[in-house]
Design goal:
The complex is a heterotrimer of chains A (about 260), B (about 270) and C (about 325).
Chain A lengths: L1 H19 L2 H26 L4 E2 L2 E2 H26 L1 H7 L3 H5 L5 H7 L7 H17 L6 H27 L11 H7 L12 H10 L2 H4 L1 H7 L6 H27 L7
Antiparallel strand pairs in A: 1-2
Helix pairs in contact in A: 2-3, 3-7, 3-8, 3-12, 8-13, 12-13
Chain B lengths: L3 H19 L2 H26 L10 H18 L3 H10 L3 H6 L4 H31 L11 H24 L8 H14 L11 H7 L9 H8 L4 H36 L2
Chain C lengths: L4 E14 L3 H10 L2 E15 L4 E5 L6 H8 L7 E6 L8 H4 L3 E5 L11 H11 L4 H15 L14 H13 L5 E5 L7 H18 L2 E5 L3 H7 L2 E6 L2 E7 H8 L2 E8 L4 H8 L6 E6 L2 E7 L5 H9 L4 E8 L2 H12 L4
Parallel strand pairs in C: 3-7, 3-8, 5-6, 6-7
Antiparallel strand pairs in C: 1-2, 1-4, 8-9, 10-12, 10-13, 11-12
Classes of the chains: A mainly alpha (about 260), B mainly alpha (about 270), C alpha/beta (about 325).
């Protein structure tokens, strides 16, 4: 464990050194990343210029949902870069050989070999949006709320990690550069709106099959004082733990099936 | 003007694009699903919104569902990855290979994308259309006589997207990590093309600003023709402006590419 | 003495699909795939003793890489037994990889964008090497390979030879008992090759490091190894001493003639008609005569040719390792 922590900090320091040697580039990356975050919000902004509420949810509340969803997603995005490109870089081009030759957990290496620092911008933007909406909605945050929020945000990141890790593992069996990530990636948008606007099937899907609602909607609902979803709120750590365990099992099975055809 | 042999060269690129895309098998199995999911998200949102009002900005619920669904069907046709492909070529240092080919890079990339889009039409757009019209209550074209104009407009939309992507992809020659820019462009086009929400929903100042940009002709333009919300003069105006923008973007892309590769030659690849 | 590597009836099968060609073929691939099972390694057995340096050769696609990947724990075998340094490689991966070093000549194991020394420092932590050992070993490697000049350069800016030296150092930092080298001299110039071979000899002598070396370059093997193993079509064709291999099997020799006129080939062919020699045309103006070393001498062949023809040039060549392998293979399958 301690070895892994020092390794993590070493990997990160190395990444920072490379990244900071191109300062102008980093600035542009942060700016464009921020622009993308804001543009993804544009739909909600334009929409609410025409309507007062979305099925009883005010503009500030929907904005809060979006802002809060950025927190676990941003954290996950910092480490997810290699998962998106896994089929391409590691399987098709055989980079995974190198991973397996080192006496360190393979998943640890894949996740922490590369970072996407600019995604921290999403976390910052998310906090700003949540703060703005909290003021507008008169939501008070006590210390224990902040602790609770931080832990569910971490659970949320773990849920994202679990879902995309399972999908990434599919690359071990199917030789494909793109894989199954895109359709599920699109499901992320679902999690940004009040779950009650969807029909039963979608609600079930987002809760129990691809549990994005546990990463963004259920935690936000609690902090928005919408008590109907409290039961789900307490299940967040259970769902995160369960799905993450499952995904590591899939990964391990995938590693055993690795064919190392690239080179 | 072009000689026949030159046109054949670019047709060959189109064929390569067509075959290449077949290598990405899963993308087509999952593609229909991906597009349907996108439509579903907005279907539910609009349904929730129209629970309280029957008409917003001249769109009723069935207009809006058709608008969203047809928007994604059309997108499945015009979409391409020129920007990303170009960026990868630059990052992997393979761009030099493009430079030594005795062809116009812009035409080459657009031709490849054209082959891809022909493929997408059959493998993605039509299946998606079938699935969507089974799942959601879609309206047929408002006026069958306008269908050719709609198709022409969609084809022009393809050229707009391809040329914009070429412009943005070329930035990779000057920037080290261009992926953030590509992502921003992706969202920019999604919102400014009117794919997610009709342009008439935007505040007045934004609409006036967007009149000076080509993006609304990517989705909003063709979709209004389909929904019959443009009269004959409006249709002609849309097509003419699309053509004009294709010309402008082609020229801009040409100049931008030329000045960028000069930079490449100076600094080395 | 316990063996360093023990392999018994080891096999690896891959399921691949046949890609059809052309537009229509690509279209068919989309829906229907014809799968076939390829036996990359088809039941091989061998042992390697501690301190041995073994050359592992065979044509492309013969199963060399697949064997090495199973020995290093990258691939899980379809069947058979592997023990290396007391571990089952794929099962005890984390503990096992600490005791081995691997160099793939075609692909660096180092981080592309960061300075070599930073890569090495990272590897120091990954392999739990103490700071003192690290310094000491780096010093020693520097004496042998003269690293200091480019320790602060990012890997992507190194020449192939420099990169290979760094890769070797990276693979040996934790003093592995077992070293796998896959084409370590590919693409290198003669000086660099010599330098690396000397280095490997020194490491083997000093640390008793066991080495398995795959290569296309016979001179690597001649310099370094006493024992070779030959694989083709997934099966071991030969496992024994290098000298014996060459004496027994390298019995062919060839003389190349660079002709003056295209028409001369027919003449040449008629000259040796009915003989045990083989006369082959390589291109328009090049022909070669293949013959058994113990039956005819090159002098006789040349004399015979020059008595009838004028040629531009002559080259005498020993049989290459690939050709020896090809000959063994043909002997196993007389039909080919």
């Amino acid at each position: 464990m301690r070895k892994h922590l020092t390794l993590l900090s070493d990997y990160f320091t190395q990444y920072l050194k490379v990244r900071l040697s191109y300062k102008g580039d980093l600035v542009i990356a942060v700016l464009t990343s921020f622009l993308a975050t804001v543009l993804a919000l544009a739909f909600v902004l334009v929409l609410f210029s025409k309507i007062p509420t979305l099925q009883g949810w005010s503009f500030e509340e929907v904005l809060f949902l979006y802002g809060f969803s950025l927190l676990p997603l941003g954290l996950f995005n910092v480490v997810s870069l290699n998962l998106y490109d896994f089929g391409n870089l590691y399987i098709m081009e055989g980079k995974f050989d190198r991973i397996l030759l080192r006496p360190v957990n393979s998943l640890f290496q894949v996740i922490f070999e590369e970072f996407r620092l600019e995604s921290l911008q999403e976390v910052a933007t998310g906090i700003a949006i949540v703060a703005y909406c909290s003021v507008k909605l008169n939501l008070s945050w006590r210390v224990q709320d902040l602790v609770l929020a931080s832990s569910v945000v971490l659970c949320g990141s773990l849920i994202y990690l679990a879902v995309f890790l399972s999908l990434t593992s599919v690359s071990f069996w199917l030789e494909d550069r793109v894989g199954l990530v895109p359709p599920v990636f699109n499901l992320l948008t679902f999690g940004r709106y009040p779950i009650s606007i969807y029909n039963g099937f979608v609600q079930f899907l987002l809760s129990w099959i691809i549990p994005f609602a546990f990463a963004s909607f259920y935690p936000s609902a609690r902090f928005l004082r919408r008590r109907d979803f409290d039961l789900y709120f307490y299940l967040i750590p259970v769902v995160a733990g369960l799905f993450f365990t499952l995904s590591t099992l899939v990964w391990r099975q995938g590693v055993r099936n690795y064919q190392s055809t690239g080179s | 003007m072009f000689r026949v042999s030159e046109v054949l060269t670019y047709l060959e690129f189109a064929r390569v694009g067509f075959v290449n895309i077949l290598a990405y098998r899963l993308r087509y199995y999952t593609g229909v699903l991906t597009y349907s999911i996108n439509v579903a998200v907005y279907y539910f949102i609009w349904k929730a919104i129209y629970a309280h009002s029957s008409e917003i900005e001249g769109f009723d619920l069935s207009d809006m569902i058709t608008y969203v669904a047809m928007g994604w069907v059309v997108r499945s046709f015009y979409f391409n990855n020129i920007d990303h492909d170009l960026a990868v070529q630059v990052m992997e240092g393979k761009i030099a290979m493009d430079l030594i080919k005795p062809v116009n890079a812009q035409l080459m990339y657009v031709s490849e994308a054209m082959g891809e889009s022909c493929f997408r039409l059959f493998m993605l757009s039509l299946p998606t259309l079938v699935v969507l019209s089974l799942v959601f209550p879609l309206k047929g074209p408002a006026d069958w006589r306008l269908l050719p104009a709609f198709f022409a407009s969609v084809v022009l939309a393809f050229f707009l997207v391809a040329l914009v992507n070429f412009l943005v992809g070329t930035c990779a020659i000057r920037l080290k990590s261009v992926l953030g820019l590509l992502r921003a462009k992706h969202f920019l086009i999604e919102i400014l093309s009117g794919l997610l929400i009709p342009i008439s929903f935007f505040p007045g100042w934004a609409q006036r600003l967007m009149d000076f940009l080509p993006f609304q002709f990517i989705a909003y333009g063709p979709l209004l023709i389909y929904l019959g919300k443009r009269d004959a003069a409006g249709v002609a105006r849309t097509l003419a402006l699309q053509l004009l923008w294709v010309g402008i973007l082609f020229l801009l892309g040409h100049l931008w590419w030329r000045s960028s590769i000069r930079k490449l030659a100076v600094h080395g690849g | 003495m316990a063996m360093m590597v023990q392999v018994q009836d080891l096999a690896k099968e891959f399921r691949t699909f046949r890609r059809r060609e052309g537009v229509w073929g690509a279209f068919q691939n989309l829906f229907v795939r014809e799968y076939q099972t390829v036996k990359a390694v088809d039941g091989i057995s061998f042992d390697i003793a501690p301190g041995e340096m073994v050359g592992y050769i065979g044509p492309n696609g013969a199963g060399k890489s697949t064997t090495v990947k199973m020995l290093t724990g990258i691939l899980v075998p379809t069947r058979g037994v592997v023990y290396a340094n007391g571990f089952v490689p794929y099962r005890d991966r984390l503990r096992y990889t600490k005791t081995i070093g691997v160099v793939f000549g075609q692909r660096t194991q180092l981080w592309w964008d960061i300075a070599v020394i930073e890569s090495l420092k990272l590897l120091r932590k990954i392999y739990d090497v103490s700071w003192r050992d690290f310094q000491e070993r780096l010093e020693h490697f520097d004496q042998l390979l003269r690293l200091k000049d480019y320790l602060n350069t990012p890997v992507r800016k190194l020449s192939l030879g420099e990169r290979m030296r760094c890769d070797l150092v990276a693979a040996l930092l934790h003093r592995p008992k077992l070293l796998f080298l896959d084409e370590p001299t590919i693409g290198l110039d003669i000086v660099a090759k010599k330098n690396i071979r000397e280095f490997l000899k020194e490491i083997n002598r000093r640390d008793q490091t066991t080495v398995l070396l795959t290569t296309h370059d016979l001179s690597d093997i001649e310099e370094l190894c006493q024992r070779i193993m030959v694989i083709d079509h997934g099966r071991l064709l030969y496992d024994g001493r290098l000298q014996a291999f060459k004496e027994q099997l390298g019995r062919w020799k060839q003389v190349k003639f660079f002709l003056k006129d295209r028409g001369d080939f027919a003449e040449l062919e008629s000259l040796f008609a009915g003989d045990t020699l083989q006369c082959e045309r390589l291109d328009d103006l090049t022909a070669r005569i293949l013959f058994l070393r113990d039956q005819v001498s090159s002098a006789e062949v040349i004399k015979k040719v020059l008595s009838r023809l004028e040629v531009r040039d002559i080259a005498i060549e020993e049989e290459s390792i690939e050709e020896i392998v090809k000959n063994i293979y043909q002997k196993r399958n007389p039909k080919l």
